[in-house]
Specification:
The chain has about 600 residues and is mainly α. The protein is about 70% helix and about 0% strand. The chain contains 33 helices and no strands. The chain is globular.
Length: about 600
Amino acid sequence: MLKASYIITLLSGIGLFNSCTGNFINKQEYPQEIVYLQRQETAYGNYLAGRVAHIRQDYDNAANYYVKTIEKGFVNKDLLGKTYIILASQGKIDEAAKYANIARENGDKNNFIDIINAVKAFKHKNYKFARAEINNIQEKTYKKLITPLFNAWCYVGENNYQKAIKELEKISKDKDMQTVYSLHRGLIAEYFDKNDEAEKYYAFIINDKASDMSFRALQIITNFYVRINQKEKAIDLVAKYYGTASLKEMLSCLKNKIEQGNTKTPKLINTADKGAGEVFLEIALLFKSVPVGYDYAQIYMAMSEYFNPDNDITKIAMADIFEERLMLKDANKYYEAITKDSEMYYPAQMRKASNLASEKKYEEATKVLKRLLRKNPNDFQILFNLGDILRISDNQSEAIKYYNKALQSIFYENEKYWPVYYALAVSYDKNNEWNKAEESLQKALKLSNRHPQVLNYLGYSWLKYDVNTDNAAAMILEAYEKDPNDGVIMDSLGWVYFKTGDYQNAIVYLEKASELNPQNAIISDHLGDAYWYGGRKNEAVFLWKQALTQKDDQEELNVKQVKNKIENGLQKTQSLLIKDEKIRETLHSLNNITE
C-alpha cells in the first residue's frame, strides 16, 4: 500500500476547483443570474457567468464561459489556470492542453501543464514526447512514483518490453511501493504474454500480508488465472474475501464471470492506454484517501477515465468524489453508466438510491431498490434501505413491511441489527401502533447495549404518553450521562423537568437544547411551553411562532395545537410525580450544577 505521506508534496503548487470560494451553493439556485450574464455577450459578462458557475461547482458551465471569455480576448494567468484545470478534471484533455499551453506562454510554470501535455501525447501515441513532458517535472515524488510508472507504459506503447521493465525497476526498491510495483510488473509481463513472470508477481500480491488486496487487483489477477486455465485458483482467491453486502455482491458477480470465462477471455489490460489508466487510477485513489486530496483525485480520475472509459471502479470512485461535494446528480450520472453485468452494479444502484432519497426523490429511490430487490429478494441491506426511504417519506405501513422482511432475512441476531429494530419502532410509533413500537424499542435497547438514542426515544415516549414516569426519567438521565452534548437528549431532560413542574430548570436545559439544535421545531415548541409557565409569555409566543417555520422535526410538530397556543395560551396541567428517591436526587444534583 502507498502511504499518504506521498500526498504532502505531490502537486503542492496547484490551486484547484474551489480556490475561489470555500462555500458550496446549490447550482439550481442561480439560473436567472446565468441567463442575465449570458445575454451580455461580452468578455466580462462571460467571465462573471463563469465565476458564478465556478462558485456553485457547476464546472461544465464554468469551463464553457471561461473559454468564451478567452476567445473574446480577455486572457490572464489566473483565468487560464482555472480553465485548463477544470477541463482536465472533466477528462477533456485535448482542450485542456490547448489552454494550458497558452497559459505556459503567459508565464504559468505549473507542473500540471506538463502532465496534461504528457497525457495528451500518450493518448495520441506520441510516446517520446509524452516521456519528455513528464520528465520535465523535477519534483521528487513525481520522480519516485508517477514518472517511472508512466514512462514504463510509454515503452509498452512502443512495444519495448526491456525498457518498460528497466523504467519500472526504479520503484522496485521502495518498500512502500512493492504492491504497486508487483501489480504493474505483472500487468506488463502479461501484456507481452510472459505468463510465468506475470504469475510470479501476482503471487507476491496474493501473499503480501502487509497490505490488503484491492478489488481492482483481485479483478486483474482472477482474470489472468482464467486465461491460463486455472479457474479453481481464481475461485479460491475470491472465496478468501468477505465483508459488507456490497462487497459480497461484487464478489458473487466476479465469481460468475470466472465460471463463465475461458482461455479466450480478453485481458483486462490489453492496451498501453489501459495500463496508463491504471497508473492514474492508482494515484487518484491515493489522493482520495484524504479529504485535502479530493481536488487532485478528481483530475487523476478523469485522466484514468480518458485512457480507459470502461473501468467501472473509476466511475464508482469519481461518483464518490461528487457525493463528497454534495453534487448528487453528477454522482448518479456515473452510477447510471454502470451496466448490470458489472461487479460494480450493486453498489452503484445502492448509492444511486441513497442520493435520490437525499434529494427527496423518494419514489424514484424506491423504484431503484425494488428493481434491485427482484434479483436479490432476501438481501438485508436492500430491504433495510427500502424501509428507511419509506419511513422518511411517511409511508409507515410499507416501511414496517420491509423492516420486518429485513429482520426475517438475517440468520441470527446480534448488536449490529439494533438500528433495524429502532427504525421499525419509529415507524410503528408513527403508525399509531405504540405497543409494537415499545416492544421493538426494548429489543433495540438490549442489542445496542443501551444506546443513548434508544434510551432517549423510549424514555421520551413514555413521558409523552404519561406512563412509566420513573423509568422514563431514569432512561433519559442515563442517555444524558452517555451523551451530554446531544441536543435532542438535552431537550428530553428539559422535558422531564417540565413534566414534573420544575419550569425554571426546564428552561435551563431547553435553552441549551435550542442552542445545540437552533432549527428544531419540537425544541422551540417545548421551550415556548416552559417560558409560558415560567412567566415569560411574550417569549413563549415568539418561540411557538418560530417553531412553525423551522425545518427540523417539523413533521413531528402538532401544528394545529401550536396555533391554538399562540391564540389562547396554555392551560395549567397536573404535574407528573417521580416516586423513586434516587432519580429525584439525581435531578436535584443536576439542578445544583445549573445554579
